[in-house]
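FW: tagging you since you asked about this chain on Friday. Here's the raw sequence from the shared folder, copied in full. Didn't touch anything.
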Amino acid sequence: MTSGEVRQKYLEFFKARGHVVVPSAPLVPQNDSTTLFTGSGMQPMIGYLLGAPHPLGTRITDSQKSFRTVDIEEVGDNRHTTFFEMLGNWSLGDYFKQEQLPWFFEFLTKEIGLDPKRLYVTAFIGDEKNKLPRDTDSAEIWKQLFKEQGIEAEVALLGSEAEGYARGMKGSERIFYYDAKKNWWSRAGAPENMPAGEPGGPDSEVFYDFGTPHDPKFGKHCHPNCDCGRFLEIGNSVFMEYLKQPDGSFVPLPKKNVDFGGGLERIMSAAANIPDVLAVCHLSILNKLEELSGKTYESNAPAFRIVADHIKAASFLIGDGVLPSNTERGYFVRRLLRRAVRYADQLGVSAGLEMLVDAALESYADAYPETYAMRGTIQKEVAKEEEKFRKTLKEGLREFEKISQGKTISGRDAFLLFSTYGFPFEVTLELSKERGLAVNDEEFKAEMKKHQELSRTASAGTFKGGLADSSEQTTRLHTAHHLLLKALQMVLGPTVKQRGSNITQERLRIDFSWNEKLTPEQIKRVEAIVNEKIGEDLPVLRSELAREEAEKLHAEHEFGAKYPERVSVYSIGPKSATPEHPQFEKAFSIEFCGGPHVAHTGVIGKFKIKKEEAVAAGIRRIRGVIE
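HL: got it, structure written out here
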């Protein structure tokens, strides 16, 4: 099956079951996100999962394009990709386990045609310390579903991955209980890490069994969560049903949600019964790369996979407006393209990576026509970055000559070559080996680990998407953020547009389009406008509108983003506005937004701009606090 066929089958399946299909959000998150990229299907849904009503109802489905920076170093094996699509369906206080698990089982076996004998599932074993019960409901549902297919499905209590490797799988076991590290979901991770007021719950994963031999280097015995390649996770149903209390206990949520995510590419791989995800989902790029290199994929699979994945991911990021640079989002596009150049060199492709862009995007012309239409621009950016990096390699070689005069190259020097000159560590290793030099790789790994932790923090944020949290202080700053954007437009002009944001309990940060440093007078005027509107104690109202109607009101929204037919809009003011009569034409600020916000601006407090600076060409940044 093609990606288009799987995507369409999934969306039509859930549409027939009362779900509204919504378009994919951009890879650059919207609505005050604290993460650099959209890394999962649930990320754009955070506000609704936390309780905000969705304008399109309680049953939603989509296919969300996603990008994960933490997987860059993992690419090269048969399953990891940085760019992927996540099929999703959500119940917002509607259906629950009894509907969700049979539906997904039916989709896999009837629509996709997977052999149910190849499917294995997991569930939450429980947490005695936090008094969270075992998810016997999911296990019983799975047991019945397999029974209806004539399959005996016994239950195994594994708990940890270590126990799985030590014990393995026995007899007719098909339902496996794991602990919270594997089968519990919250934005903060395990139950003990969750703050008060945070929702979470058990999840149930489905794995496809390719039947390949177990590789004992991963552990003595195989089990569904084994990394040997035999099993591939293809879907995960999260049952958000608990709320953590201030005393550390958990109580049931009044409205329980279902948050499902299934890897489109992984389902394609299972449908083809081919354990190499990239060979199935990146076939056009691999074929073009074979043509350019004169080499075969089978003989050079890791390098082929890295080039193919990185070109596709970079193409979609550039298509969503992220250009290569040395800071934040642009850094990751640059990193992807430079790794692609390095591994293309290994394949004998010394130029012309832009020729892979068409192959990367051709199968997405219908699903993402806006990205496909930009392929000319994307090709130019890829070519430009490749040329720039090849010059950088020359500079790195000159620096390498300076540090290679002794018998050993320190890990710190090797890391500086990497971080400052973009000089790949593997190049340093190869050149050192040729000259009989030792490289302190442990020291390099330590420096790299610190670097990756910083990158991961920047990428993941405090939580996976949305605001840093839903605390009162963060909510106040979120509303102040809306006031600030409007004040900037009033002082600097209507061409000012938001280009990024980050909001925590301590401060807000907004990136906006502007070419010059703000004068002290301009900063003072912006502050004054925000505080003036706070002092007026204006009502903050949420409305559900048709997208076209909201656009006619000139409501602020993300440039280039796709929005559903009905959208959530927050308006601030006028004083006389009510939920029944929002009076948009007199409102101070109107924005597409999922919330949360304060009810009246008067509760925000005094706003103060702490810093104004440049972050990129034509982009300024303001940090503000509430005093």
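FW: The mean pLDDT is 89.
HL: agreed, and Residues 3-278 form a domain with the BirA Bifunctional Protein; domain 2 fold (CATH 3.30.930.10).
FW: great, closing this out.
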